[in-house]
Design goal:
The protein is about 40% helix and about 20% strand. The chain is α/β, with parallel strands linked by helices. It contains 16 helices and 15 strands. Helix 2 links the parallel strand 2 and strand 3. The site of iron/sulfur cluster has 11 residues, from loops.
């Protein structure tokens, strides 16, 4: 059974004031060691349970180490990777997220020797005022040196950039895009800054001490990115992701295409078949999440694991299973994820989920007429300019399956 594998490493050497990921800068070496042991235990338990219930061997099409800052570690991954090697599909993609300051010749060589073949680097911006505004710990010249070093060892590198940070001008963004193209980095993830409740930025925005960028200026940044990256030969895979031909991120497509993945570690999410090996041709799957606090997971590490279903196991490991999920929820997940990709929405799949025929609402008919959306057999695709308005289009698509 082919699935993806997501491994969350929650440790960071500093905390950025906008970040809402499961992360901590408060940890010691013993906790890190215990955490890696816990990852191995979670991995063995979940994979073992899938194989036991399906009677099939699990293999991985992609492995993604996300965080936090997985780039803080190198040889620590060896025991986990030893465990994973026998399950890798040919041509597997193995990504590790890192920050520019993690990139050294030693780290690159170790990651490569462990089989990693893709780096995702959190650059965020190359503007001095932007790096300060985003409370990052690297400078622009250090980031450019890191990118060059990384590309010398890994041809497949992603650069994360953020737009809409306080004080960013159109010229700042144009310069970031220009430097991205010039760097030769083949994949870019460009995110608009969001102000999440539980972050310092979110609190500052609530108190009026920081003013989020207007929707118009964010739309203008998005449009500039489309123009510059499209002109430089990058394919626009998804609203936030661009890739040169041959460098699309396979792990991302698992999420967008509603494919299954195992998630392990603090704050990790997973999406597994509900009845692995079952006869049903429509399995809405089981979604789960582990708590964001790594210490609460460590505390559960010594407990005996329950026999029974995958949901029992996840709960026993300290995770939470979404048991309120029904066909409507699955449809919302699928449409929300696929609408803003170049593959678009598989209407036949939606019809299978809902049991209803797709009946395009007037707004969709109008989009088709204006050629900002296309129907191609059972695929409905929207123009990339429309991906930015995903919420309103998702609503129109959902009501086109009348219940
Ligand atoms: S953005 Fe990255 S480095 Fe900064 S706190 Fe979040 S996970 Fe850590």
């Amino acid at each position: 059974m082919k699935v993806g594998l997501y491994i969350h490493i929650p440790f960071c050497s500093f905390l950025c004031h906008y970040c809402d990921f499961a992360k901590t800068a408060n940890f010691d070496a013993i906790e890190v060691q215990d955490y890696f042991t816990l990852l191995l235990a979670q991995y063995r338990a979940i994979i073992g349970r899938i194989e036991q219930s399906s009677g099939r061997k699990v293999s991985f099409s992609s492995v993604f180490l996300g965080g936090g800052t997985p780039g803080l570690f190198t040889g620590e991954y060896a025991p986990l990777m030893q465990e994973i090697y026998g399950r890798l599909d040919p041509g597997v993609e193995i990504s590790i997220e890192c920050n520019p300051n993690n990139i050294t010749a030693h780290a690159l060589a170790t990651w490569k020797s462990l089989g990693f073949n893709r780096l995702s680097i959190g650059v965020q911006t190359l503007q001095k005022n932007g790096l300060e505004a985003l409370t990052r710990d690297h400078d622009a010249s250090g980031a450019l040196r890191a990118l060059e070093l990384a590309l010398g060892v890994f041809p497949n590198v992603n650069m994360d950039l953020i737009y809409g940070w306080p004080g960013q001008t159109a010229a700042d963004w144009a310069d970031d895009l220009r430097q991205l193209v010039r760097s030769g980095i083949p994949h870019a993830s460009l995110y608009s800054l969001t102000y999440e409740d539980r972050t310092p930025f979110g609190r500052m925005a609530r108190r009026g001490r920081i003013k989020p960028a207007s929707d118009d200026s964010l739309a203008a940044r998005y449009s500039a990115a489309r123009e510059v990256l499209g002109g430089a030969g990058y394919e626009h895979d998804e609203v936030s992701n661009w890739a040169r031909p041959g460098f699309t991120c396979r792990h991302n497509w698992l999420y967008w295409d509603f494919k299954h993945f195992v998630g392990i570690g603090a704050g990790a999410h997973g999406f597994l078949p509900l009845a692995p090996g079952g006869a049903s041709d429509l399995d809405l799957g089981l979604r789960y999440a582990f708590p964001r606090d790594f210490r609460s997971l460590l505390r559960r590490g010594h407990m005996e694991l329950p026999a029974g279903t995958m949901a029992d196991l996840i709960t026993g490991l300290g995770g939470e299973v979404d048991d309120s999920r029904d066909a409507d929820a699955a449809l919302i997940e699928y449409v929300g994820g696929s609408l803003r990709t170049r593959h678009g929405i598989d209407l036949a799949f939606c019809e299978k989920i809902t049991g209803q025929a797709f009946t395009a609402r007037p707004a969709i008919l109008e989009a088709l007429r204006r050629e900002v959306a296309w129907r191609d057999g059972h695929r409905l695709r929207f123009d990339p300019a429309e991906w930015f308005r995903e919420n309103s289009w998702a609503g129109e698509v959902l009501v086109s399956f009348p219940s």
